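Appendix B, Record 12. Input sequence as logged:
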Amino acid sequence: MLQRMETGEFYLIDLGSRNGSFVNGRRVSVPVTLHNSDRLTFGQTELEFYCPNTETPSEPSAGMESQEFTATATLHVRRLISVLVVDIRDFTVMTRQLDEKILSEVIGTWFRCAGDIIREYGSWVDKYIGDAVMAVWIHGAQGISADEMIRIARALSALHKMTSQLHELYPLPFPLRIGAGLNTGYAMVGNTGTGDRPDYTALGDTVNAAFRFETSTKQIGLDVAIGETTYQYLTKSGANPSLFKQHKVNLKGYDTPTLTYAGSFSDLNTFLHLSSGDTD
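Logged structural output:
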């Protein structure tokens, strides 16, 4: 998708294409701004981007001067996505026991490493929220392969491993732990920001439920909670994800109990081992 903003800039957004989209030889995983002479590759098609200079927007009329200009791009697309929400456990407790400078370094390192891991596994950090991150995988129109879901599960395992090792780098009062919610379903994907500050994100119940699943792990005393649709796709991987037990949880804002499958990171790693035959 090519989208022109109010500023005249063009953005290229890959909506989960099978072969990927490339700008100057680099695969697009997040929306990118295009510049004249950029080389675009879509499958076997190669293009060169060019856009004539646009005129400078005229000054607002007197009738607009008193109004806050909040125009937003309204192009949204309904897509099948997977949403991962990861939260640091007992972060508030740690803030009371740790020097502010060290705390800032710790959370900065965690955010940076989390972003690197999520990009490595084919997504981007959609939101940094306090002591949590939200990542979105946009799936193609052909559906979700078992490999895609395994890749997301591996990203979560890598996030857990990275987090558990931070106490080796910093004098933390206790090793850090994370909880996670993972949900798959349809959502509207598009820009919710303004022309000069675009914010591409996903909106809808699929996203909300992912946050609620993460919170539910505290109710049931486990590390990871996944939605029913995610669980169904994981069953296609060749390994039975039955290590994740079925639970009914009361999610905030939902009238009736919701079905989730939950387990520990040990369960997750065992599942990944069985699904791939790894011995490490």
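The chain has two domains: 2-48, 76-276.
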